[in-house]
Write a structure and sequence with these properties.
- By secondary structure, this protein is an alpha+beta fold.
- The chain has two domains: 202 residues, FAD/NAD(P)-binding domain (3-Layer(bba) Sandwich), CATH 3.50.50; 192 residues, D-Amino Acid Oxidase, Chain A, domain 2 (2-Layer Sandwich), CATH 3.30.9.10.
- The chain is built from ten helices and 21 strands.
- Strands 5, 6, 7, 13, 14, 15, 16, 17, 18 and 19 form a ten-stranded mixed β-sheet that branches. Strands 1, 2, 9, 10, 11, 12, 20 and 21 form an eight-stranded mixed β-sheet that branches. Strands 3-8-4 form a three-stranded antiparallel β-sheet.
- The protein is globular and about 65 Å long.
- Bound molecules: flavin-adenine dinucleotide.
- Flavin-adenine dinucleotide binds next to α1, β18 and α10.
Length: 404
């Protein structure tokens, strides 16, 4: 591809990269866009390994970027799926408080819902029983009717097709390795020139941004999400989505029960500290230099107990054991038994940014730019849900005008 020049080069063919390309073409139909992806197809990482839940946005304070784009993004993604014949099920979700000390968080979630105009209601034990007959009846429960599940693989496939039809050029097996002067990238397929670069590289977005002299204040720690699946005997016990009240000081929602679009019910995911940005197995995806750097960050967080990290690490590492995983699931559904949970290879990594100065996990999406590049950092959950609205916000931050 040496010598090729594009108005816009997007790094990463996950949901963020694809929706950004989609938004660019919507605004400037004749602009020249290339998407560079190091894998052989879109969605090989987070975008193809998630729970497929379209979140309603109840977890986010109104001053966050997540609040600005989550509910709107979910609405738009559901409309997109319906228009394109992609399976989507607006099945709703219940959030369960399992102890009295979660009541302040229940109130906070309800006030987020009010501030962000998200339909949500406190429900009685009787209403909970009607929605989810086997769910644990604790001190409080919230019902979110707009939560949906979607076929995320079909969304990625359809977006790719639409983009190709509109002239977007995809370079697969093409890893960005660095910059080669202003407006030129070095990749494993050769050099490529651009007017404007948009970095949507997910777990490697901070590394790409550092190549532009940005994001120096961030380090990345990956958290592994593993799942179990309910057996066919236990599967009917879950109608839609059953979530715990989360610890809102953490960017994770806790082990939940989700009936995904193909009818399977998954239990998970965990948020186990991992030693590689693509460390999906026990040792798979581990690279020595990267692991040492991550290990250094994890050790620091453990020693300083940042963001209550010791408790998180102990709790989450414990979930490698099926017994501990079952205990977390039983908080939501006490009748679940060991034999109801069957192993699955489904696993994903959440690439979480830590701010080295404040020593805190970054909770929101972050956009940083130079005069000819924009970098999407910390595109953690619910970036799939948010993507169509998030892409609009990202593209609105771009000042470059293509030559069309
Ligand atoms: C277990 C799990 C469950 C989740 N559940 C949900 C959910 O239910 N709902 C929801 O909304 N969100 C969920 N999320 C979050 C959501 O999946 C992610 O926020 C979203 O997919 C991020 O998209 P992305 O495009 O930024 O990243 P990615 O999908 O990771 O895409 C980035 C792409 O960049 C490529 N890349 C990286 N470096 C380079 C390079 N140097 N050169 C070229 N290409 C490169 C990668 O190969 C990758 O394909 C979940 C995430 C996980 C891990």
């Amino acid at each position: 591809m040496s010598g090729k020049t594009f108005d816009f080069v997007i790094v990463g063919a996950g949901i963020v990269g694809l929706t950004v390309a989609y938004e660019l073409l919507k605004r400037q139909p004749r602009t020249h866009v290339a998407v560079l992806e190091k894998e052989d197809a879109p969605g090989r990482h987070a975008s193809g390994r998630n729970s497929g839940v379209m979140h309603c946005g109840i977890y986010y304070g109104s001053d966050t970027l997540k609040a600005k784009v989550c509910a709107n993004g979910a609405r738009r993604m559901i409309e997109f799926a319906k228009a394109e014949g992609i399976a989507v099920n607006q099945c709703g979700k219940v959030i369960l408080a399992t102890s009295e000390d979660q009541l302040p968080t229940v109130n906070k979630l309800m006030s987020n819902a009010k501030d962000n105009n998200i339909p949500a209601e406190r429900i009685s034990h009787q209403q909970l029983r009607e929605l989810e007959p086997y769910a644990a009846a604790g001190p409080a429960a919230i019902y979110c009717p707009t939560t949906a599940v979607i076929d995320s693989a079909a969304v990625l496939k359809r977006l790719r097709e639409k983009l190709e039809q509109q002239g977007v050029v995809f370079f697969f097996n093409c890893a960005i390795t660095g910059q080669q002067g202003k407006g030129q990238l070095q990749s494993t397929l050769g050099a490529i020139s651009y007017g404007y670069l948009i970095n949507c590289a997910g777990a490697y977005a901070d590394t790409v941004a550092k190549g532009f002299g940005l994001a120096q204040e961030y380090a990345l720690v990956p958290f592994k999400g593993i799942y179990w699946k309910l057996s066919s005997a236990a599967n009917p016990k879950v109608r839609a989505n059953i979530y715990p009240v989360p610890d809102i000081s953490m960017p994770f929602l806790g082990v939940h029960l989700t009936r995904v679009i193909d009818g399977n019910v998954y239990v998970g995911p965990t948020a186990i500290p991992a030693f590689g940005r693509e460390n999906y197995g026990i040792v798979r995806g581990i690279n020595l230099a990267e692991s040492l750097e991550i290990g250094y960050q994890l050790a620091g967080m453990y020693l300083r107990n940042e963001s209550n990290f010791r408790k998180l690490a102990r709790m989450e590492l414990g979930k490698y054991s099926k017994k501990n995983f079952l205990v977390a699931a039983q908080k939501l559904m006490p009748s679940l038994k060991m034999e109801d949970m069957i192993p699955t290879a489904k696993a994903g990594i959440r690439p979480q940014l830590v701010n080295i100065k404040t020593r805190k996990l970054e909770m929101d999406y972050i956009l940083v730019k130079t005069d000819n590049s924009l970098h999407v950092l910390n595109a953690i959950s619910p970036a799939f849900t948010s993507s169509l609205a998030f892409a609009e916000l990202i593209v609105s931050n771009i000042t470059y005008q293509s030559s069309e």
